[in-house]
Amino acid sequence: MEHITGSIHAKTNEEPSLSQPVNKADTGCQGKFLNGEGHQNKPPNILVYTGEDGTSTCVKFNSIKENLLLCLLPDQYVIYLLKPQELTSSPWQDNAVLLVISSSNVPLEISETLNSFISKGGKIVNFCTELKLSILDIKIVATSEKTHLSCMNYQGSVVKLMKKSLRLDMSDCSLTSCMLLFQCDSDRKSMIYKLQNPTTKGFMILSQVHLELDALLLSSGEEEFKQLKQYNKERLEILQLLLSSYLDMLCGPGSQRSLTSGILLATSHEKLQEFLLSIKKFPQGKIPCSGFTLHFVDSLPDYWTPALLADKIPVCCKINDNTAELSFNLERYRSYLQTKVLGQIIIYFDVVSTTMTLLERFTNINGIVAISKYQTKGRGRGENEWLGPEGCAMFTLHVSFPLKSQLGQNMSFIQHLATLAIVQAVCDCPGYEDINLKIKWPNDIYYGSNIKVGGVLVNSSLSEGIVSCFIGCGVNIKNSNPTTCINDIIQFHSQANDSQLEQLTVEKFIAQTLTRLEDLISCFQIYGSSRILPLYYSYWLHSGQEVWLEESQEKATIQGLDEHGFLRVKTSLGNVSFQPDGNSFDMMQNLIRHKKLP
User: Fold this and answer.
1) Residue limits of the BPL/LPL catalytic domain (predicted)?
2) Which of 69, 143, 209, 433 is 20–30 Å from 215 (CA)?
3) d(Cα 203, Cα 195) in Å, to the nearest integer?
């Protein structure tokens, strides 16, 4: 075996350290939409493996996540903790653009999973962690368990960072190349390098210095803490450089948007007055919700600041009939809305944590909708997060109906009606019929079969025989990153067919979605699913698809939806139905798996 502890020898392709962090947004390398296969297909997930469990894991993960977010462009990536048991059991390999490893070591049984990830083109950045990877023909061994301050060259200056000394063992006949990225100031030993087998596109960045953790978690005393803090800016610059230049992440000045107050809007003066009358039962217009209070006021008080908006959210009821300065174009929205109930009352926010919890106290107001320009903590199914950048249509709608009704007896259909309404909002328009939008069971919107552009989340409650459903929708209308958007698809379709289809606006899309949803709900309440399913199947991805049932370990064929809206599959023993809340469908693997409770 060849031992590499200092400068990389014969297998090294040296490349000078870059002097400035590269912002891919400025290089024209953002992966613009070219065709159905040419765009980034993987979800924009960054996974972090710390190899630990318990409270310390949470603290460490939060520190890594915070440091990554300081380097990455806002609203481009979702960062999740990858637990040890999930490394070998969950289908994370097809759902991650980057794996960050920060642990003492990686067990051998996990190494095979990492080999598979790299063989599929996966990228890993390894901070000071012992592991063995056969695909790279390497074994990384710590020469000391202790970390120590070390000096590294950066932009012609010396930067002090916390280092863990590692030995990199490689066989003499190894094909793996080692590209030196950074080296030690005093003895010129390697600090950070890129390891890649030329037979695969995947690779690993190995760092002997901790760039991912704050000084507080690394220092053993006050003096170490002060020295690490002194070079905190440079540490983050180096981390950003690795992410942007070598790992192809979209980087820039990370920042957290400040929450804003809300604005009450209505399609007519009469609708507005009806709503204001309905909330008079709440003293001083204060409506307590889960973890926060909505405060309806005539105008924003002077003492309101963004810092207060986490738990006290004002909603302005009077805007002097002037909506010209709003980010949301009410007139455009109103011109496309053709409903009797849905979407007539709007609570609008420029920036909100999530719209899913804003309407929970409005169960008596059918059709009220909360809309936001940005969301800082958008929600997906289970523990998933939903990115909420500008250009997405993000809203939550409240719909109520009797329990003793067609929809009340088959509530699972509400999410199917919502996904169908979203697709129809685009594809029902003249000239847009061939836009290739599809429905993935149970609640996702796809372009073709592999690019997700939106999704639906439904929470429901029952009170006095009335079902209240809160339907959250998030669809990327006009933001080309991090994956693709509806307007990219429309533009591509126009170019391919020599046409000039008009680009969608968020207001038009939401209005048309609500219009079609109201029609679909009305149709379902009268005729049940018989008139809905032919429309639904014309857009969904799964008719006749063969899948593997993980729990029963057998093949099955998807038949469609049963009378309750559950997924029906044909097995060797007959037809079986799967509820959406208890199961998930991994399209990459054609796999239906039972979702385990945490």
Assistant:
1) 331-525
2) 143
3) 6
Which tokens is 163 given?
């280092």
Q: Report the pLDDT averaged over residues 476-498.
A: 84
SS3 at position 24 = helix
For residues 81 and 64, what is the distance between their CA atoms, to the nearest angstrom? 10
- Which residue is associated with the tokens 């080296």? 183
For residue 365, what are its two tokens?
């107001």
Using alpha carbons only, what angle is made at residue 150 by residues 149 and 154, rounded to the nearest 5 degrees? 130
3-state secondary structure of 313: strand
Residue type, 422: I
Close Cβ partners of 141 (under 8 Å, ≥ 6 residues apart): 130, 166, 167, 169
Return the amino acid letter for 76. Q
Smallest Cα–Cα separation from 206: which of 217, 219, 220, 195? 195
Which pTM was predicted?
Answer: 0.70
CB-CB contact of 152 with 161 (8 Å): yes
Q: How far, CA to CA in Å, does 93 sit from each of 40, 47, 64, 559?
A: 15, 10, 20, 28
pLDDT of residue 479: 81
Q: Which one, of 105, 153, 160, lies nearest residue 133 by Cα?
A: 105
pLDDT tens digit string along 69-106?
888 887 788 898 998 888 887 678 888 999 999 999 99
d(CA 58, CA 535): 45
DSSP string, 466-504: EEEEEEEEEEESS--SSS--HHHHHHHHHHHHT--PPPP
DSSP 371-396: EEEEEEEEE-STT-EEEE-TTEEEEE
The H or E element containing residue 275 is helix 269-278
Q: Strand, coil or helix: what is 49?
A: strand
Separation of alpha carbons 152 and 149, rounded Å: 10
Dig out the tokens for 501 from the structure: 């289809």
DSSP letter (8 states) at residue 482: S
31: left (phi over 0), alpha (psi -120 to 50) or beta: left
Straight-line distance from the first to the last Cα atom of the chain, in angstroms, rounded to the nearest whole number: 43
Q: Tens digits of per-residue pLDDT, 535-557?
A: 999 999 988 888 888 778 888 89
Closest-CA residue to 536 (of 416, 432, 428, 452): 416
> Would you give the distance in Å from CA 104 to the centre of its chain?
28
The two tokens of residue 107 are 């067990």
Rounded to whole angstroms, how far apart are CA atoms 233 and 208?
Answer: 19
